[in-house]
Queue: 2 jobs
Job 1
Amino acid sequence: MAINAADRETIIQAVRAYMAKERISREEFAARTKLGKSTVDKLVVGIFSEKTVLQVEAQLGTSLRSSGGGADFAAERQA
């Protein structure tokens, strides 16, 4: 199942908002999510697979898509 453009943007915003709220670097985010730094670098610019999103959601215990809690991170960031 492909990630649509709206969800992709929500995911990007949620990840950026999470890092800002937690005041962590991309390196720390990579460590928390058990991803490589280059994968995180791609994630914050919108280049990622559904597998990557699922791993981030599992490690952080939240949903990054518009139907889940990650949308709250994205909404806070836009406000």
Note: The longest helix spans residues 5-22.
Job 2
Amino acid sequence: MDNADPIPLLVIHGEHDTISPLEDGRAIADAGDGAIVVITDAGHKDLYSSKTPTRPEIVTALSAFFKDLGTDLSNTFD
């Protein structure tokens, strides 16, 4: 596996997550040579929900991540 291409990794983590501590999210990102985006004022279950509006910082992070991979998502979240 030494010659395998790296797998892109983006960890999106709530700053106030009490189920999976932020340190765990950072460790996952570091172990996978990935990136982490910390969402301020978010916990574990309020990052993604059909009952809450999409957080703009998540949309921005995902768009930038996929753009870096060569995928344009500019119209996906309109």
Note: The two ends are 39 Å apart (CA to CA).
